[in-house]
Amino acid sequence: MSTAGISVAYHSVSTVSTFKSRADHAAQRVLILVPIIWVLNLIDLFFTRLASLDRDFIELNPLASHLSGSGQLLLKLLALATFSAVCVALRRRRSAQLGCWALLAIYGTLAVIWFTVFNFLLKPVFLEQLVAGI
Fold first, then answer.
1. pLDDT top residue among 113 and 127
2. What is the pTM of this model?
3. In this structure, are residues 42 and 81 in contact, taking their beta carbons and an 8 Å threshold?
C-alpha cells in the first residue's frame, strides 16, 4: 500500500471520529440544556401563578388564558415534558440542539422580565403579602 493510500485511510478515520465526537458533544449539550430549561420554566410558572393572584393580571398566552390555574399548570408541564422527550430522543440532531437553545433564550428572557417586573413594579410589602397568600 502506498503512503497516499495510508494518508487517505487515516484522513477518513479521523473525519469519522471527529464527526462522532461532535455528535456526542451535541448530545451532551442537549442533555445539559433540558434541565436548565425545566428550571427556567418552573421560574416562569411560579411568577405566572404569583401574578395571577393580582386581579389586574392579564395572561398573554392565548391557550393558557382560557384555562384555570391547575389547567395552566398541566398545559405547561405537559408541553415541556413533550418537548424534553423529543429533544432527548433526537439529541444527536442539530434541530434538537437548536430547539433547546431557542427555548432557553425564550425562557431566559421571560425570567429576566419576571424578575424585573417583581423587582421594580411591586413594593416589597405587597410582594410579601402575595407570597404569604400562596
1. 113
2. 0.68
3. no
List the chain domain ranges. Answer: 29-132
What is the spatial distance between Cα 66 and Cα 50, in angstroms, rounded to a whole number?
A: 17
* Residues 13-54 pLDDT 10s: 444 445 567 778 888 999 999 999 999 999 988 888 887 777
Which CA distances in Å does 2 have to 5, 8, 13? Answer: 5, 10, 17
Nearest to 101 by CA among 20, 29, 28: 29
Burial of residue 118 (number of CB atoms within 10 Å: 0-12, 13-18, 19+): middle
d(CA 28, CA 15): 20
